[in-house]
Queue: 2 jobs
Job 1
Amino acid sequence: MTHQASSQPRLSPTSDTTSDAPDIVTRLAPRLAHFAGVARTEHVTRAAQELNVPQSTLSRALVRLEHDLGVDLFARHGRTVSLTPAGRTFLTHVERALAEVERAVEEVRADADPATGKVAFGFLHTMGAETVPGLIHAFRADHPRVRFSLVQNYGEAMIERLRAGELDLCLTSPVPTDPDLVARRLDEQKLRLVVPADHRLAARRRVRLAEAADEAFVTLEPGYGLRRITDDLCNEAGFRPRIAFEGEEAETLRGLVAAGLGVALLPPPAVPRPGVVELSVTAPRAAREIGVAWLEGHPDTPPVAAFKKFLLSRRGNLLP
């Protein structure tokens, strides 16, 4: 290997390395494995054979690497080389970086494996007690080793996580109509007016929502899909709800109702809650659509594609 003279332009110690760093990293990245291979063998020819690249290509890559760094990484001794102190320092970090890349490759390949891959799945809090466990149990009858990363949140937060690439799919309500998303309606869930057990309406089985116009309501916070549905239904019934308390979870609202602090529009509970009575709402029609959403144009790994197909097959039969 011929060593080019050190008269080539080198990085000055006073260079603006901060502004140059992203460009340097881009140039260095493809050469790190070449550098590590030569450092391991201390022989360019043997390293070229192990790396399955032409020796001339490897030699030029090392020269360019040293040029871009502005330091000598190797001392040349005929056909052999040895690391300089700078080379040893650089090798320590390069080996760590390459090991991290290898781990990353292994992780993304494992997540995409058809049999053992991972699905990042988001869903509403009200889906967590029965619906989602039942869905995953049924899906794993045919895909027993697929792994799940589960996220419970309200609809808008899950949509943002879809856009950020943190979720593959989410169950949400209302079904989104954003142009950058694909959404499919899967089922409908009736909502009930939940009142305290000693409430004036508690002896009824059915009620028009307008009959609760003078009541204090406990609701989810703004931004939650169920809050928007509650506001819309009350508006359709001819009144604006008087909000007494806002929360983040449906069962907490049921507890507030049981304590006599208001009434609420909620989906059916997984387990009946003492201290409250749940009334069917006859007018307006009180229900929420449940749908699955994903990012438009986002490629699916095999496990995500399989779970998406499974969810779509449960259309009309999603809820327990």
Note: DSSP finds ten helices and 13 strands in the chain.
Job 2
Amino acid sequence: MSLTFIAPPLQQINSEIARHAGVDLYVLRLDLMHPWVNGNKWFKLKYNLLEAKEKNFTTLLTFGGAYSNHIYATAAAGNLFGFRTIGVIRGEERLPLNATLSFAVQQGMQLVYLNREMYRQRNTPALEEYLRQRFGEVFIIPEGGSNLNGVRGCTEIISNAMPTAVTERSRSTGYAYAFDHICVACGTATTLAGIALSLHEGQRAIAFPVLKNGAFLAQEIESLLTNYLASGSPTPYNSPASWELVCDYHFGGYAKVNDELLLFSQQLTQEHGVPLDYVYTAKMFYGVMDLLHQGFFCKGDRLLLVHTGGLQGNVGMEERLHRFSKI
């Protein structure tokens, strides 16, 4: 397995919708950084891995569902950087293993299953103590890498992960890369918090929750931002840039899709060569395109859409959709 990570390409989307709206549309292809450890998953893992190494831990333990991108990436990263890994999986074991969990096992991850009631206690000291008694001294990474280490890594998505390109507009405004809006799908809010901390005050982060009734994430974002700034962890600015949640594009809830979203994803891939994962990035792209139709953005705006990876999850989603179509 390769240790080589590449700088994520910046790709312009020459869409008729964007041209009609008078905006420039770009996508930051975090999905291309590495075959297995890519997207925002790498950024959320980076400082967790460094802390584990500095504290001489040899085993990582983390949490996720049966199709989790985080489980997939943690298993691969553990194998890459010499850690033993344990994945605590929500629900009962189902055999044969799906593609995500099969890959995790191939990377050396030990899978442990918790019923849903116990799994809901995953962030409590009592369950953490139980797991340490069972598995010894393990470095625990929360589900989705949602901790201050994860936020710290995500502050580097825009500031350090972008290709070094200077535009005429950035020379005149002084803004890095001169993007007015940075758009990202939102699950745990960790990525949005990191991005907001890394932007110039004149820029705006827009998050598209993939969960139903995602407005509750505003409180999670505020908590992450407050705790991060209080921790003294590195940040380019003393306060986050403005941000907002757009909660209308969840398509029924987490991991819910319909034919309209699937068709949109397929067409965008065919027209622009950008594959989308159905759970996260497809919903964000759909939302942005719909907002462009509505005139949500101003003419002359430059938008950056962050592709957060997760394409491996499409295999499991397509398997489930195919199975349900036969019922």
Note: The longest helix spans residues 39-54.
